Amino acid sequence: MKLSNPFLKIQKLNFEQRWVLYGILVLIAIAFFYFSIIQRSSILGAFLLIYMIAAIAIPLVGGGTAIVTGTVGIAVGLIFFNVFDVQQSIFSWILVIGLLLNILFWNYLRQNAEIENFNYQKIFEELEVKINSMHAELEKNQQAFQSNQIKIHRYRALNELARNLAMTSRTTDVINLLIETVAKTFMVPGGVYALILFDSSLGKSLHSIRYGVDTDLEIRLNRDRIDPDEVFNRWILNQSKPLFVSDLSNDFRFQAAVGEKKFIGSLISVPFLAGNEILGLLRIESSSPKVFRQDDARLLSNFADLGTVTLEYAALYRQTIDLAITDGLTGLFVQRYYKERIRDEVLRTIERKYPVSLMMIDVDNFKNYNDQYGHLIGDRVLKAIADVLKKAVRTVDVVARYGGEEFSILLPKTDWEGTRHVAERIRQKVADLEIWVGNDRTGVTVSIGVAEWGPSMHDAEALIQLADQGLYQAKASGKNCVILAKGPQNV
Questions:
Q1: Distances (CA, A) of 201 to 56, 194, 198, 208, 313
Q2: C-alpha angle with apex 344: 342 to 349, nearest 5 degrees?
């Protein structure tokens, strides 16, 4: 039935509106009651008033079924005793008609209420299904949002790493930047982050390992991780592709290593692949299984690709610098760079008041040696002397090929006496060299001039000139000897 029905319209009235209508009905009923008392039976009028008030007002203001049933019962009795009264038949039939209308009205309300309840229940169930579906969709979207946020964070880190690497030219700086960025990006529970460079065209083996904040592993494990023959490193070297281990205990490839690797639950390792050469690898581990996903492996591969390009650039940059400051034959510093180092050291000496010494070294009769055996043999001699010089000095000392067959060594924090001992050791080592030309054993000697920085000197050139004077004196003294130049400070 449509809601345009008058009874349904009455049901839609609010509380105040219903009571206004109720008051109007009461006035009508009282007027009817007064008319019934004067013209007809007072009993009939009284019960008719009760019927009118109860049967019509109860649907408006609310009421139980028992009240309605009682009212209808009274009306039925009243009809039975008065229906044959001719004088009151009109009122009785009016009452009958009102009773029938009242019954039809209440039956209509009951049916309509059931239909509405059914419809409401159906709508409620549909809404409940939609709400549950929306909750599931919302949860799915939240998970997708969180996943996208993680991806955005990680690719921002990748972008920032690319910018930072573009401004980095030292291999050690590249290593440190890579390992720090990987650690901050992944933040794995029980995580260990390792970067290893094997001996390659990039230089000697280097490594960097960083532990997560909640990891407690012994330092001795480092030796295992940087070993090229370690099981996971060996797999990378053999396969030349990324390694993804979700759960080590269930990975058939490494069942033999499960007992030895109790501290590893899951792992990703990717190579620094330059063409067909593996420069090293980037590796992250967790003590818990099933920590990593394939997306993590792909992201780590992106980090490794950036690292490979930057490491190659750093190696090329270093080679360029080395070519600019080192001698191609001997690998020693060239004169121009060497003089810059002398000037820097002299400034530190003046500021901090510690000694610095310098020696000039010249190969005796080298022109005659070259003329006799040729320049190729002469080059072998120069490289052999350069090796002697490198092995005879400390890491802080600076060795240079000063020009032709002449060499020079700068010794910071060393006085002339200490320098003289080093010079004597060099002179003896060179004299003991055996240079074979076919079946002939040949050799050379060197003359060395030593100078120490003194307060009367004004600049680095003064120190170089004084050492040169010592060299000339050594040549004049018969060669194959060490002479301390006698400047004002040594007198």
A1: 103, 20, 9, 19, 12
A2: 90
For the stretch 467-486, pLDDT in tens is: 999 999 999 999 999 999 87
The rounded distance, in Å, linking the Cα atoms of 208 and 311 is: 14
| Helix and strand element counts for the chain (H, E) | 14, 12
Q: Point out the domain boundary residue: 323, 338, 360.
A: 323
In angstroms, the Cα distances linking 79 to 37, 76, 97, 121, 170 are: 17, 5, 11, 41, 113
Domain containing residue 53? 6-127
- 342/485 same-domain check: yes
Contacts of 397 (CB under 8 A, 6+ apart): 409, 410, 411, 412
| Contact status, residue 189 vs residue 212, Cβ threshold 8 Å | yes
Question: 3-class SS at 86?
Answer: coil
In a domain, 216, yes or no: yes
Burial of 35 (0-12, 13-18, 19+ CB in 10 A): exposed
Verify that 335 and 399 share a domain, yes or no: yes
**Do residues 214 and 197 both lie within one domain?**
yes
Residue 395 CA to residue 417 CA, distance in Å, equals 19
pLDDT digits 0-9 by tens, 132-173 = 888 888 888 887 777 777 777 777 877 787 888 778 778 888
User: Which residues pair with residue 119 across a beta bridge?
Assistant: none
The three-state secondary structure class of 401 is: strand
For 215-224, the pLDDT digits (tens) are 444 444 556 6
What is the token pair recorded at 215?
A: 């990891």
